[in-house]
Design brief:
Blueprint: H1 12-22, E1 26-28, E2 35-37, H2 39-58, E3 62-63, E4 69-71, H3 72-75, H4 79-85, E5 90-95, E6 98-106, H5 111-121, E7 130-139, E8 153-163, H6 166-186, E9 193-196, E10 208-215, E11 221-231, H7 233-237, E12 241-243, E13 249-251, E14 253-260, H8 262-271, E15 288-292, H9 297-316, E16 321-323, H10 331-340, E17 345-349, H11 351-356, E18 358-363, E19 369-373, H12 377-402, E20 404-406, H13 410-419, E21 423-427, H14 432-442, E22 445-450, E23 461-462, E24 469-470, E25 473-477
Parallel strand pairs: 3-7, 15-16, 15-17, 20-21
Antiparallel strand pairs: 1-2, 4-6, 5-6, 7-8, 8-14, 9-10, 9-22, 10-11, 11-14, 12-13, 17-18, 18-19, 21-25, 22-25, 23-24
Helix pairs in contact: 2-6
The protein binds one RNA strand of 77 nucleotides through α1, β11, β14, α10 and α11.
RNA sequence: CGGGGCGUGGCGCAGCUCGGUAGCGCACCUGCUUUGGGAGCAGGGGGCCGCUGGUUCGAAUCCAGUCGCCCCGACCA
């Protein structure tokens, strides 16, 4: 089943596909561009979902579910929105054996149907704010697809909120960006840069789009999540108004924000190595796997029994543990398989360990092994898992720093991009023309205008491409 | 849509140039020996060769068409 994977250094894309398939995160489905998320990949998604959902609830949001099918006419109500999404819509034209009066669009996102409902639900300032999230699937007919990173159908969460004032909407937009960043860094051990999208890159229908940008293991950028301040665009398009305290009718202010199963691809590309996936302990479906080692039947009975006993203790301590007691694989084979799947900590229990009343542990992120006494095993395993979680984050931060470059002129820009890759902090004149020209010449895009830039990046300068005045530096990179 | 590649047991492939009734590795089943870094030997099961049509005594192989997938470019979370 797992017959070796392409090395990252040979071909990063193939490495990625090999790991996704062989670690059984996902598999191709019969329909082009769509995929099956297998139980191991879905287990990871469930853990992500739980971590995000908890944060949404803590910030006052509630979940609901809106339908998959949207009247085609809804998509046309907001001008930029139609333009942005029409090329990638899947449309149902026939149903029940007949042609439909009005075609139904399979949601690429739910703004339109949600705002159509909000019109009914919002009348008074007392109805605000509305803070609803939904977990759903969406369909976007992409030309080129890649497992988890860009598929025709994907799973995500989309928050849609309505507020009385522009200030509240902006605060919500920023708050959810912070929630995402916290989730990425705390749970995924993936450092992200919070930023604003340029007008060229912002969401179709948004006033302003914030994003979190992460660096993958090949130094390319990946947009990991977005939070949009939609202003009154959708409220006006769907005529959603409320009566303020002073009796005046006003349009509401909106936000929307989402993250997707792309997170799974991001996680793999941030932490993975030539041996496969590396799961951060907080999200790992299996945090520790126990492999019994034995020669004789008696040893087998004893070590397997001890493995289950230790597993029981760990489970009692809230650790997600799995005992690999399959007799048809040798230990070495099992090690390789669990490494491919990225289980952060492996425990081995053999005859020697039984004697010593200990287990042997091996970290996935480093070649570091050591014995742990069974006495106090919960605490020592928890401690090791936390160490791994921190180490993964620190390693990713270091990698990003090593691959972030400041450049001052165009030749330097091109040579750094070509020879080193990574994130480039450079001056930009703020125009879409320059942004597009740079993209056409180098394939690099402005990933974002960072929010938490240091003073050295906020000094004025000259645009790296046009030489025109620039207020500050932005991040350029090749992206997914 | 343009360029490239590929469809042959579950998976990965060979066979196709030069038609003759399908093979290899892994996986699977049985048995014995093994088991602290991807075990060994022996025996065994499984495939209308993507689909359709044509040429031929005979097609995985030649011809025409068709469908699908993957990779690279134009769109995007």
């Amino acid at each position: 089943m797992s017959q070796g994977i392409t090395k990252q250094s040979e071909d990063f894309s193939r490495w990625y596909t090999d790991v996704v398939l062989q670690a059984q995160l996902a598999d191709y489905s019969p329909v082009k561009g769509s995929m099956v998320i297998r139980p191991y990949g879905y287990g990871l998604w469930e853990n992500m979902r739980d971590g995000l959902d908890r944060r949404f609830k803590e910030t006052g949001h509630v979940n609901a579910y809106f339908p998959l099918l949207i009247p085609e006419s809804f998509m046309k109500k907001e001008a930029e929105h139609v333009e942005g999404f029409s090329p990638e819509l899947a449309v149902v034209t026939h149903a029940g054996g007949k042609k439909l009066e009005e075609p139904l669009v399979i949601r690429p996102t739910s703004e339109t149907i949600i705002w159509d409902m909000y019109r009914k639900w919002i009348q008074s300032h007392r109805d605000l704010p509305v803070l609803i999230n939904q977990w759903a699937n969406v369909v976007r007919w992409e030309m080129r697809t890649r497992l988890f990173l860009r598929t025709t159908e994907f799973l995500w969460q989309e928050g849609h909120t309505a507020h009385a004032t522009a200030e509240e909407a902006e605060a919500e937009t920023r708050q959810m960006l912070d929630v995402y960043a916290d989730f990425c860094e705390t749970e995924m051990a993936m450092p992200v840069i919070k930023g604003i999208k340029t007008d060229h890159e912002k969401f179709a229908g948004a006033v302003r789009t914030y994003c979190i940008e992460a660096m993958m293991g090949d130094t390319k950028g990946l947009q990991a999540g977005t939070s949009h301040n939609l202003g009154q665009n959708f409220a006006k398009a769907f005529d959603v108004t409320y009566q303020a305290e002073d009796g005046e009718r006003k349009h509401v202010y909106a936000t929307s924000w989402g993250v997707t199963t792309r997170f799974i691809g991001a996680l793999l590309m941030v932490h993975g190595d030539d041996d496969g996936m590396i799961m951060p302990p907080r999200l790992a479906p299996i945090q520790t796997v126990i492999v019994p080692i034995y020669k004789t039947d008696e040893e087998r009975t004893a070590t397997v029994e001890e493995a289950h006993r230790v597993a029981g203790i760990l489970k009692g301590g809230g650790i997600r543990v799995h005992v690999d007691d399959r007799d048809n694989f040798k230990p070495g084979w099992k090690y390789a398989e669990w490494e491919l799947k990225g289980v952060p900590l492996r425990l081995e229990i053999g005859p020697k360990d039984l004697e010593k009343r200990s287990v042997f542990s091996a970290r996935r992120d480093k070649r570091e092994k050591k014995g742990l006494p069974v006495e106090g095993i919960v605490a020592s395993v928890q401690e090791r898992l936390e160490t791994i979680q921190t180490a993964l984050f620190e390693r990713a931060v270091k990698f990003r720093e090593e691959n972030t470059h400041r450049v001052e002129n165009w030749n330097h820009f091109k040579s750094v991009l070509e020879k080193k890759g990574g994130f480039i902090l450079a001056h930009w004149d703020g125009t879409t023309e320059t942004e597009v020209a740079i993209q056409e010449e180098t394939k690099a895009t402005i990933r974002c205008i960072p929010l938490d830039a240091g003073p050295e990046d906020l000094e004025p300068g000259e645009c790296v491409f046009s030489g025109k005045p620039s207020k500050r530096r932005v991040i350029f990179a090749k992206g997914y």
